Structure formats: structure tokens, C-alpha cells
Amino acid sequence: MNRFEKNRTHAGLWRKLGAAAFFAGVLALFLLGLDSLSGVTARQEAEGLKNSILRSAVHCYALEGFYPDSLGYLQDHYGLRYDEDKYIVSYEIIGSNLMPDVSVIAKS
């Protein structure tokens, strides 16, 4: 080897390590964004279920003149369906002429 030539073996190694670190960083950012997106989607699904329950209750009130006394009534008579393994639904009736209090919680 000529003494005026630079040893390029270390430069190639550093370039490869830099590219690998950059790729790992981009992959980590992608996975964090994907996790954040799935959390937003789960919250939107729970909010959509709550709105669906309330719409069904209002529909019942408009047709029958009272809010249903249970979530089962909406399931039996108004076709309400949801994944009971995925969500916990709290349906609290206040009165036959008052809008029920509905809470939807996603199970872990």
C-alpha cells in the first residue's frame, strides 16, 4: 500500500453503521406513529358506539314515547349490536322521558 493513500476500510464501516442507525431510527418513528394511530382509532370506535347507542335510544323515544329501560331492549327491538368482548357499556336510565347516560369503555 502506498503511504499517501488513505485507509478506506474504516470509512466504509462508519458509513454502513450510519445507514443502519438511520434505518433503525426511521423504523422506530414509523412504529411509534402506528401505535399512536391505533390508539386514536380505538377511541373513535368507542365514541362511535356511544353515538350509535344514543341514536337508537332517541329513535325508540321518537317511536314509542319513552327511552328504553335497558341496553337489552335496544338490542332486541332496534338491532343494536356491538362486540361485548371488546367494550364495556354502561347504560344508566334516569327516567322514561330523560336521555340515558351512556359510557363506553374499551377493554384492554
Could you walk me through the main structural features you see in this protein, from its secondary elements to its overall organization?
There is one protein chain. This protein is mostly helical and 108 residues long. The protein has one domain (9-106). The protein contains 2 helices and 2 strands. A two-stranded antiparallel ribbon has the order 1-2. A hairpin with an 8-residue loop joins β1 and β2 (101-106). It is rod-shaped and about 95 Å long. The model has no long low-confidence stretch (mean pLDDT 87).
Q: How do you describe this structure in short?
A:
The protein is mainly α and 108 residues long. Helix content is 58%, strand content 11%.
SSE layout and pairings?
Layout: H1 9-64, H2 71-77, E1 87-92, E2 101-106
Antiparallel strand pairs: 1-2
Low-confidence runs of at least 5 consecutive residues? none
Distance between the termini: 64 Å
- Classify the secondary structure makeup into a structural class: mainly alpha
Number of DSSP-assigned strands: 2
What's the total helix number? 2
Total individual domains = 1
Rg from Cα: 28 Å
Main sheet: strands, sense, barrel = 2 strands, antiparallel
Mean pLDDT: 87
Global morphology = rod-shaped
Report the order of strands and helices: HHEE
Q: Order of strands side by side in the largest beta sheet?
A: 1-2
Could you estimate the helical fraction of the residues in percent?
55-70%
Could you state the oligomeric state of the chains shown? single chain
- Name the beta content range: 5-15%
